[in-house]
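Usage example:
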Amino acid sequence: MNIEDRIISLLDGELSSADQHRLFADISASPKNQQLLRHHQMLRSMARTSLTAVSTPVGFEEHLLSTIATLPLTQSIASTAGYQRTAMASLLLLIAALGTTLLLRTDHTEFTTSNAFTSSSANIVSNVPSSKMLFGSAASSQVANNSKTELSTNVIGRNSIRAVVTNVNRENNSFDIINNSNESASITPHNTITPSPQELATVSLADVQSQHTDITRNRVHSIVGLRNSREDSYPSFEVSLQTSSGFTSPADQQAIKPFAEQRLSLGYHLGYSDVVGVRVSSGLYQMPGEIQQTTELGITVMQQDMVTRRSFGGELFASHQFAGVLGTRLTAVITAAAGIIPNGSTLALESGVRIPFTDDVAFSVDFSLTRVHSNVERSSATISSANTSSSPIMYVGSDVRTTLNGSLHYGIQYRF
Amino acid sequence: MKASYNTLSDSKRPEHSTSVKVEQEVISAFIAGDMIAFREVYRVFHDKMYRYCVFILGDTTLAQDALQETFIRVHLHRHQLRETDALKGWLLKVTRSVCLNLVRTSKFTPEFVYLDQDFDQSNPTSNTKELSLEGFDAGMPNQIFQYAFEQIAPIYREAFMLKEIEGFSYAEIAELSGTTESNIKVRINRSKKMLRKLLAPHFREQLGEVTIEEEIKREKNS
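Running the assembly step on the lines above writes:
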């Protein structure tokens, strides 16, 4: 640690007493060190004074509460519009990903929204069920001056909502407010406060702002970034129902393969991105059937055909999710799974994507590569156990017991 | 139902840091959707959150957007606050997430993205140059400091603010930033050095000092 590090540690109270003595000796011996100490002391004092001088602008609380009071309506409008756009963009992205080149960039699919707080044309004051709202003097004077005032506000990234104020009573500052769904509410102030004489935006950062691009006008948002990812909170469970189609390698053999599979998965979120769970599959499984034993021309023919049976399998899986891929609301998922099927076992690796319809419901697509192993005995074992002591044996059937299957699973996922 | 303001007993926290704690019943009511409780939570934390937004985003208008979006999110997702003790951390985490998303969607300036990563530039302290005080009124130290503060990278601003102003511990900041405690210590240390260097002309002016070079020259002459 150099002298400056030690001074910082001293002021943070993190220097041991022995080190303190050494530091004091160094400081007393050097004017430069004394200057360093004085500067750091001033820095601490200046930082506290300067940074704590910033406070939320007057009127912000009223604006926020009124915005939240009108939120359900706003949110439903935004959900429809936002998610339709999100779904369309997601499908385009998916198509592009399955094609040759992914060139779709969010830059091409942007729209503008006006500034949220500063663009509101007036303060809206409305009542909130089961609560008392303070009634700002700025808002009351506005209402008093307008017997019928049309007010509007925007929420970031959401559609604007409109409300009309009517029946203003100038004596007690009460009024009615009607929104665009004809829902009305009577507003009666419970208390009146006078905002403290703070200046709006006490921070003067003019010099700094002048160095940046003016992003407050026509600020652009990504079309698929309307609703922010919920990294700050996450659901506990997710359940998905998927169906699938796929292929098997080696394809020219009568292999053991599950197909036409439906699977129900239940996952538990260990964290925002990590999920573990169980999966139950129902499908038509091909598997070696009963051995037909015949004798032709003195040769014992053992024929074992593949049969298709509906059966069930189970898997344990672990997934990791990458939210917000390509700056969108899509979530990429990689999964490892292991399980059992009738007379066999599976090991699978999957990758997929979740395309959200709402906060909780998503369309899920996964591509899986599964190594399927059948425990059915091989032809050599079948032949050796056959009760044909004298005649030669011919085995007719597949000896493939391990295959690699590729499947595309698609379905609906719900998080809760 | 009123929020209480308790000073934490953590002796390592700065003396000025009046950490606040909202009563459990207020938090429970807040989670249940009571708007009075929501307002109490707002009143306890809004200044801290706003300060964070202003100095991370470097723009008051953006900061107001961020604060509004944060409280809307907090209101909408209040049921997902799992531990009532974690309210302060949760609020700051949401604020941070909103700021990052706002920056991403605004295509503001790429450097802010670094907040989201375990990113540390090679030691920038040595490259820091003293601030020119031209155009600044020495009687307005807040303005000078805020300008200097804007000159250092957001990862350093964030670490400095949370530790020195908001009184978070190294562990809390590390958890919030998704990095290690030692990394946070380095960031705070560097931020102090950079700020000290940037503000050195102001300090000298205030203290009536001369530069070290001038001091040495004076000693030689005498």
